[in-house]
Amino acid sequence: MKILYFDDFRLGILKDDQVVDVTGAVTDIPHTGPHNLISGLIERWDQYKAKVEAAAASGKGVPLSSVRIRPPLPKPVNIECMAVNYMEDGTLKEPAPINAFHKSPSAVIGHGDTMVLPDVPATVFEGEAELALVIGKRCSNVKAADAMGYIFGYINFIDGSARGLPPAGNVFYQMKSRDTFCPIGPYIVTADEIKDPHKLQVKLWNNGVLMQDFNTDDMAHKIPRCIEWVSAIHTMEPGDILATGTNHRGLNPFMDGDRIEIEVEGCGRLAFNIRDDLKRTWERITRRQHAEAKREGAHTPQTGGKHKK
């Protein structure tokens, strides 16, 4: 099942290219807004699945192209992102130590929205294409052998990043948690529709040019281990997000006017825009191309605009 919010946060089920409003089937779930309506539904899915399916079957759909798609999880309690969790096409000799970081829920935007690049001296702005999982039930000290049973579904996820901010070493919070730096969607795909999350192709296009193209089979620490590790640190709640990391070799600068699209196999296509009021520029190449050219530094240097060194 594909679950989304649309227009003024009506709850919908996607059937082919039509969205059916099923809001009426879930109005008795205690909630104060769309953020905890969807988490309440996820928590009570066993009770409400049949009601939602019946509403979707009997309701009249409207074309998806005629509605405004909203973030399917407008404000999760937790967004956790695995760090350096790919083998980078075999260029890493061994997995990096397992690690993660927190991303602010206020960073969430949805399909058709705009990531805004702030006036900070970043060396480059990038967005990492990732498969993310949605937690289905309260998750604390879960063993890897049981972990897959805690997944409600999957979404496309972008980890926006402002690289190289000073001072050196003061990294993840100011790099990752900025407003608009977490595009997700366009919908949640329930776990039963994804046969094997470790065999999915992940693609990202910048202005129609394919930049990232990798498979989740390159993941270093697999999903059960990620859930086990994160849930040993803190409890995750229904509707929380755990992003599984990216292959960094295709990362490329995001600049003003860019149209970004991501498609994790089976999860639809998420598109959003980039706005930079400072109109800064970088050479349009990937990290892999930068490295293969044996250029200095980890990222292509800024070519124009404020903060150019």
Fraction in beta strands: 25-35%
Rounded to an integer in angstroms, the radius of gyration calculated over CA atoms is 19 Å
The CATH class label of the largest domain is Alpha Beta
The CATH architecture of the largest domain comes to Alpha-Beta Complex
* Secondary structure: helix percent: 10-25%
| Unreliable segments of 5+ consecutive residues | none
CATH topology of the largest domain: Fumarylacetoacetate hydrolase, domain 2
Separation of the first and last Cα atoms: 49 Å
Q: Report the major sheet.
A: 12 strands, mixed
Order of helices and strands: EEEHHEEEEEEEEHEEEHEEEEHE
Q: How many discrete structural domains?
A: 2
Walk me through this protein's architecture.
This protein is α+β, with helices and mostly antiparallel strands and 309 residues long. It has two domains: 2-70, no CATH class; 79-304, Alpha-Beta Complex (Fumarylacetoacetate hydrolase, domain 2), CATH 3.90.850. The protein is 15% helix and 32% strand. It contains five helices and 19 strands. It has helices at residues 34-43, 45-58, 172-176, 223-233, 287-292, and strands at 2-6, 10-15, 18-21, 61-63, 69-70, 79-82, 100-102, 108-109, 114-116, 124-135, 151-163, 182-190, 201-206, 209-215, 241-243, 259-264, 269-275, 281-282, 302-304. The strands form three sheets. Strands 1, 2, 3, 4, 5, 6, 7, 8, 10, 11, 12 and 15 form a twelve-stranded mixed beta sheet that branches. A five-stranded mixed beta sheet has the order 9-17-16-13-14, with no helix packed on it. A two-stranded antiparallel sheet has the order 18-19. The longest helix has 14 residues, at 45-58. The radius of gyration is 19 Å and the shape is globular. The model has no long low-confidence stretch (mean pLDDT 97).
